User: Which sequence fits this backbone?
């Protein structure tokens, strides 16, 4: 079990391989569908629209060397303090059209979600030095416990699940399923299960 | 107009939603434990099942959602003659709003045109209600929370299918189911639970497939051909080796339940409802004002 602390440098990322279980600590940002279209439509523009400059700076500070987590949490607000009640990963492949640009633009080192991603993201991981960390789908309470503090929220107008939550985590569990060397567990399992399928269809 | 029989389901429904969201049914948990023990020790598959089991007991203890995607609320209400379905809907809607305030449910109803989240899980078609009048003198409310990730990998197939060499028979059904589970890989949060309907039109087919998800994991189909196909598909889907979360492993599917409906001569649909490992269902019966919760 590798223990890693964000932000991460390229050497550390390159030392990781598919199948490695990891416990991640530090500050990360949640972002799913609306967040990714928002990044592309607003924050990746040059210049950034004036209304978004502040959020843009904050997002860059977290994501540079940092982690983006595909998650739409259940949250609670008591005495002006937010806490995460349940925070498992959501399906990542929906962000496939955007993620490579997001990795490149912000210098993201870790993309966290479930189900894995496609060729474009795998190539970006290899080129820019990033990994895909597969969280345990549905393990919402377990993961919420690893969120020690909700530090801030941006774009709450997107709704609770779609907003950008800046969270501090300790020992967030996951498995590297796409590394920075062009390997993807998802492709391997797909190929092996395809062979099994062909056998079963013939039988 | 005769007045309907009086009942207020609101408080009981709130508790039903809390239970469904925070306590996984025992038969599902047991199946996950067996899966955990089958996987190779130290494998990514076994580690993810261990995390899942740990998560299940934490959620029950803390009374927090088993999974943050608290899904579509699907209610089936069985009631004797004389009750008003419209007022039962109002009562359950109020319970849904309160369950969202308590964070048993995530705000999950999004307007399809404006993209706006209603914030309280109410909206057009949300929650989903199905009413069945019956002869028994008690009310049975069944609830399933069906998550989005697993909903996205459901499929409705048409037979024959020339690509798969699948004909209009049970072997054809077997082939399209295997192909659907292959296509889903780990994306529906495997290991999953399958509800399948052979026949019907497209609407009725999916409806019946989803009703199968309410069946206990270890029941036996009374139709021998279907029981046999359920067993064979359970074995063969696991031979695909996709494993928990798609990390590879021995357990891809936990159970298979199949129904059959009459169809038109011109069509032959196979509707496949995939439920993730977080198969959250709960029942309650109400008789003479007394509420009993099951599962
Ligand atoms: S598919 Fe199920 S377990 Fe996975 S995130 Fe959705 S509701 Fe949770």
Assistant:
């Amino acid at each position: 079990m590798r223990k890693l602390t964000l932000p991460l440098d390229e050497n550390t990322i390159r030392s990781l391989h598919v199948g490695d279980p990891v416990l991640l600590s530090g500050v990360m940002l949640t972002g799913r569908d609306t967040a990714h279209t928002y990044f592309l439509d607003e924050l990746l523009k040059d210049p950034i629209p004036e209304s978004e400059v502040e959020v843009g700076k904050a997002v860059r500070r977290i994501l540079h060397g940092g982690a983006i987590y595909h998650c739409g949490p259940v949250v609670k607000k008591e005495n002006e303090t937010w806490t995460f009640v349940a925070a498992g990963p959501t399906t990542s492949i929906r962000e496939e059209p955007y993620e490579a640009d997001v990795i490149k633009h912000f210098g993201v080192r870790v993309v966290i979600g479930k189900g894995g991603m496609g060729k474009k993201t795998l190539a970006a991981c290899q080129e820019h030095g990033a990994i895909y960390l597969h969280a345990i789908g549905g393990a919402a309470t377990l993961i919420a416990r690893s969120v020690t503090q909700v530090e801030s929220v941006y774009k709450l107008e997107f709704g609770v699940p779609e907003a950008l939550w800046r969270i501090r985590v300790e020992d967030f569990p996951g498995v590297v399923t796409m590394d920075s060397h062009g390997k993807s567990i998802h492709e391997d399992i797909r190929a092996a299960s395809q062979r099994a399928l062909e056998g079963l269809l013939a039988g | 107009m005769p007045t309907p029989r009086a009942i207020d389901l609101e408080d009981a429904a709130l508790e039903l939603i809390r239970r469904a969201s925070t306590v996984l049914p025992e038969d599902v948990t047991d199946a996950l434990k067996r899966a955990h023990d089958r996987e190779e020790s130290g494998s990514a598959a076994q580690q993810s099942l261990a995390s899942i089991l740990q998560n299940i007991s934490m959620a029950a203890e803390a009374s927090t959602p088993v999974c943050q995607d608290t899904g579509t609320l699907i209610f089936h209400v069985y009631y004797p003659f004389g009750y008003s379905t419209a007022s039962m809907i109002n009562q359950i809607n109020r319970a849904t709003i309160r369950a969202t305030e308590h964070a048993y449910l995530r705000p999950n109803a999004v307007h399809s045109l404006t993209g706006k989240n209603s914030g309280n899980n109410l909206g057009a078609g949300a929650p989903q209600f199905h009413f069945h009048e019956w002869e028994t003198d008690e009310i049975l409310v069944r609830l399933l929370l069906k998550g989005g990730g697993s909903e996205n990998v459901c499929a409705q197939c048409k037979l024959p299918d020339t690509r798969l060499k699948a004909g209009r028979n049970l072997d054809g059904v077997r082939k399209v189911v295997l192909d659907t589970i292959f296509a889903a890989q780990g994306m529906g949060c495997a290991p999953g639970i399958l509800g399948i309907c052979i026949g019907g039109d497209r609407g009725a087919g999916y409806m019946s497939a989803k009703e199968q998800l309410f069946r206990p994991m270890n029941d036996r189909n009374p139709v021998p051909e279907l029981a046999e196909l359920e067993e064979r598909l359970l074995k063969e889907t696991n031979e695909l080796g996709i494993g928990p979360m798609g990390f590879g492993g021995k357990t891809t599917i936990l159970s298979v339940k199949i129904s059959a409906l009459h169809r038109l001569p011109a069509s032959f649909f196979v509707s496949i409802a995939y439920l993730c490992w977080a198969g959250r269902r709960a029942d309650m019966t109400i008789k003479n004002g007394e509420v009993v919760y099951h599962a």
In short: The CA atoms of residues 55 and 79 of chain A lie 24 Å apart. The mean pLDDT of chain A is 95. Residues 185-202 of chain A form the longest helix (18 residues).
